[in-house]
């Protein structure tokens, strides 16, 4: 059979240099080329003991029996760096956080690494900085990395760590960081069962940075980290942001923390002053409302409380309305405010007057057009807005007239 066209397909070779997804490491990408065609490999998987190169034809065709040249994407080097860095990370976590740390899973690709581990609480910022420092320090030592296949019993004797819940055969592959060769694996700083790809010396990792730490389930944490070129790109983007912030705040990058502290302190002071001012304004609004109650007209037992409030926000006006309804068990109330150049009207009617046919919504619908607006609401509470606050006195006079007329019926 032969393969043509652009549809997704799987290719199996008699031997391959491509790494199949396993142990948290992403499968390799690359190309399979022959004189007759090119197959682009997007992923490599292990299916039923076969290494399957998953991808699509980019040109021509390939037939069973064709010879191909397999070329793995240069991204593999970045993946190797991240995989070895994952081993360093686990070692450093155990050094800082102790024996409670146990691997629960991982992902290793060319762009980033992710490591899941058990720990009863959230590591502190200082602990994560210490972990990061330990990893970077070991990278600077440029320790060798040795891979060796050995009997499971021998690996256990050498203290190699196995992933909890993973099944292993009689022969296992051990990755040892800090061992020049197989004879020194027992002396290595890190020894783990692993079938993935790794660097020969950890110095090529270049640098390491934790960019995120989070909880993913009860007692399980996740760290995401960067190395190599991906880290360089990340740090460059961060430096651009820092320079932009420094320019906006009119300071230099080194002085940003002090400048931010200064702004936070100023913001706190202003918020305190604003809160104090809002408290005074609310007290003034309540005083105005009480004065309206003291000077209001009455029709029988019903209070007709109609008047303006000096630039009170609608929330303060509602609070004043609630206070008036409590102090005057039988009342028809209309309050008006100039809210930043807009007229606001608020009406409230107690239940006994509603029973007599007086409704807040009807009052608002009658007076709102005077201030160039409209509104409505329930029988006991209604409000409206308008664009002409200069006519508020006229609207209030109409409200008082309407209430008196309704109560006189």
Q: What is the fold's blueprint, element by element?
A:
Layout lengths: L1 E2 L4 E4 L18 E5 L2 E11 L2 E11 L1 E2 L5 E4 L2 H23 L5 E6 L4 E6 L6 H17 L3 E7 H6 L13 E7 L12 E4 L14 E10 L2 E8 H21 L7 H39 L2 E3 L2 E8 L4 H14 L3 E9 L2 E8 L1 H4 L5 H8 L5 E5 L3 E6 L5 H17 L1
Helix pairs in contact: 1-2, 5-6, 8-9
Molecular structure report:
- With 409 residues, the protein is an alpha+beta fold.
- The chain has 3 domains: 72 residues, Elongation Factor Tu (Ef-tu), domain 3, CATH 2.40.30; 169 residues, 2-Layer Sandwich (Threonyl-tRNA Synthetase, Chain A, domain 2); 123 residues, Diaminopimelate Epimerase, Chain A, domain 1 (Roll).
- It is built from 9 helices and 20 strands.
- The strands form 5 sheets. The chain has a 6-stranded mixed sheet with strand order 15-16-17-18-20-19, sandwiched between helices. It has a 5-stranded antiparallel sheet with strand order 2-5-4-3-7, with no helix packed on it. It has a 4-stranded antiparallel sheet with strand order 8-9-14-13.
- Strand 3 and strand 4 form a beta hairpin.
- Helix 5 runs parallel beside helix 6 and helix 8 packs across helix 9.
- The chain is elongated and about 105 Å long.
- The mean pLDDT is 92.
Terminus-to-terminus distance: 98 Å
Task: For the largest sheet, list the strands in their spatial order.
Answer: 15-16-17-18-20-19
Q: What does the largest sheet look like? A: 6 strands, mixed
What CATH architecture label of the largest domain applies? 2-Layer Sandwich
Number of strands: 20
Class from helix and strand fractions:
alpha+beta
CATH homologous superfamily heading of the largest domain? Threonyl-trna Synthetase, Chain A, domain 2
**Strand percent estimate:** 25-35%
Broad CATH class of the largest domain: Alpha Beta
Q: Provide the gyration radius in Å.
A: 37 Å
* Net shape: elongated
Specify the helix fraction band: 25-40%
Task: List unreliable stretches of 5+ residues.
Answer: none
What is the CATH third-level topology name of the largest domain? Threonyl-tRNA Synthetase, Chain A, domain 2
H and E string? EEEEEEEHEEHEHEEEEHHEEHEEHHEEH
List the domain count as a whole number: 3
Average residue pLDDT: 92
Enumerate how many helices there are, as a single number.
9
């Amino acid at each position: 059979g032969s393969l043509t066209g652009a549809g997704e397909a799987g290719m199996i070779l008699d031997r391959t240099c491509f790494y199949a997804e396993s142990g948290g490491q992403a499968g390799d990408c690359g190309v399979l080329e022959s004189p007759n065609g090119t197959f682009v490999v997007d992923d490599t998987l292990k299916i039923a003991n076969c290494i399957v190169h998953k991808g699509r034809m980019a040109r021509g065709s390939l037939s069973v029996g064709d010879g191909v040249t397999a070329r793995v994407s240069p991204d593999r080097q970045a993946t190797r760096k991240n995989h070895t860095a994952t081993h360093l990370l686990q070692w450093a976590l155990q050094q800082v956080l102790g024996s409670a740390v146990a691997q629960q899973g991982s992902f290793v690709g060319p762009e980033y690494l992710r490591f899941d581990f058990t720990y009863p609480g959230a590591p502190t910022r200082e602990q994560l900085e210490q972990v990061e420092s330990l990893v970077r320090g070991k990278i600077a030592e440029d320790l060798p990395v040795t891979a060796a296949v050995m009997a499971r019993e021998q690996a256990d004797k050498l203290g190699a760590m196995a992933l909890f819940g993973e099944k292993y055969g009689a022969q296992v592959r051990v990755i040892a960081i800090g061992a020049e060769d197989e004879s020194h694996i027992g002396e290595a700083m890190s020894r783990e069962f692993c079938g993935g790809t790794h660097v020969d010396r950890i110095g090529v990792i270049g640098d390491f940075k934790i960019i995120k730490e989070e909880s993913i389930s009860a007692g399980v944490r996740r760290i995401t980290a960067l190395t190599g070129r991906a880290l360089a790109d990340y740090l460059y983007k961060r430096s651009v942001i820092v320079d932009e912030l420094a320019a906006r705040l009119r300071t230099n990058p080194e002085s940003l923390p002090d400048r931010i502290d200064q702004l936070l302190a100023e913001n706190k002071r202003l918020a305190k002053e604003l809160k104090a001012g809002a408290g005074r304004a609310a007290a003034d609004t309540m005083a105005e409302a009480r004065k309206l109650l003291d000077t209001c007209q009455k029709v029988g037992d019903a209070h007709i409380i109609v008047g303006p409030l000096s630039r009170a926000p609608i929330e303060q006006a509602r609070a004043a309305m609630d206070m008036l309804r409590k102090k005057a068990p039988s009342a028809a109330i209309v309050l008006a405010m100039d809210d930043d150049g807009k007229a606001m009207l608020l009406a409230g009617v107690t239940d006994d007057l509603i029973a007599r046919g007086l409704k807040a919504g009807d009052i608002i619908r009658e007076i709102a057009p005077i201030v160039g607006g409209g509104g409505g609401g329930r029988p006991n509470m209604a409000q409206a807005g308008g664009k002409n606050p200069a006519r508020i006195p006229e609207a209030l006079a109409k409200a008082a007239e309407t209430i008196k007329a309704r109560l006189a019926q």
